[in-house]
Amino acid sequence: MHLPVPIEYYLALSAIMFITGVTGVLARRNAIVIFMSIELMLNSANLALVAFSTRMGNDAGQILVFFVMAVAAAEAAIGLAIVIALFRNRETVFVNDMNILKW
Amino acid sequence: MTLIDVIFWFFAAVTLGSAAVVVFSRNIIYSAFALLFTFFGVAGFYVLLGADFIAITQLLIYVGGILVLLVFGVMLTNKVVSVDIKSGTLNAGVAMVVVSLTAGTIAGIFYATEWKTAPAEMLQPTTAGELGTMMMTSYLLPFEVASVVLLVALIGAAMVSRRDRSKQEAA
């Protein structure tokens, strides 16, 4: 019987992916790249959840992953609608140009 | 090194490499297509972990839905031919500090915790049937709420992104 890949590997991978996403959200100025980075962070959280779920023999974590995916789909649809409306009105997708509420 | 290990490291390289391309690429089209490989890599991990239903859902929702939506967003908001000189970084110093703090916290938790796993005989080979039963019994209310959330998001997205007709006619 072979040993499965230890859960620490999956968790480390998920952590690195999450940090990559955090970097993208904080450092990039294009709103669509920020969306992609948020999707990266959600995916890394999902990966950790699935790793915990299968290694503990409890399927409830995978139900949670399913709901995270549903919310991520809703978030992507709304977020891109906002970005497209912004681009139509202000001709920009850079977050540092979106300063209309700033004084 | 068994075959499982080789597959794991292959998917790890694909996922982390393309995730880095998503975040650090100057060209937003490259970012969008690198995200495709990240999603595929994560789906591969789900298969490796024995989560067959989640792996299929990942392909259907992320690759088939969200990624197509993102590519549409890129096409609608970027002038593809023009060179985007401003797509660089923003507040790199502050971002570095916050990222290092977050990374340190996560690494600390990672090393301080003793990760426990169940014995191998408890692990199930497939999960789709079990998940379906759970979704229709103990998780029925969240399931229905999720469908309402998706409906509201759909209507909201259509409302936000369409042109305002009344304003145009007035002008």
Folded structure, characterized:
The complex is a heterodimer of chains A (103) and B (171). The N and C termini of chain A lie far apart (65 Å). In chain A, helix 1 runs antiparallel to helix 2 and helix 2 packs antiparallel against helix 3. Chain A has 103 residues and is an all-alpha fold. Helices cover 76% and strands 0% of the residues of chain A. Chain A has one domain: Helix Hairpins. The model of chain A has no long low-confidence stretch (mean pLDDT 87). Chain A contains 3 helices and no strands. Chain B has 2 domains: 136 residues, Four Helix Bundle (Hemerythrin (Met), subunit A) (Up-down Bundle), CATH 1.20.120; 33 residues. Chain B has 171 residues and is mostly helical. At the A-B interface, helix 1, helix 2 and helix 3 of A face helix 1, helix 2, helix 3, helix 4 and helix 5 of B.
Overall form of chain A = elongated
| Percentage beta strand of chain B | under 5%
Query: Tally of extended strands of chain A?
Result: 0
Low-confidence stretches of chain A: none
In round numbers, the mean pLDDT of chain B is: 84
Q: What is the CATH C-level name of chain A?
A: Mainly Alpha
| Whole-number total of structural domains of chain A | 1
Biggest chain pair interface: A-B, 73 and 82 residues
CATH topology value of the largest domain in chain B? Four Helix Bundle (Hemerythrin (Met), subunit A)
Secondary-structure-derived class of chain B: mainly alpha
What's the SSE pattern of chain B? Answer: HHHHHHH
Strand content of chain A: under 5%
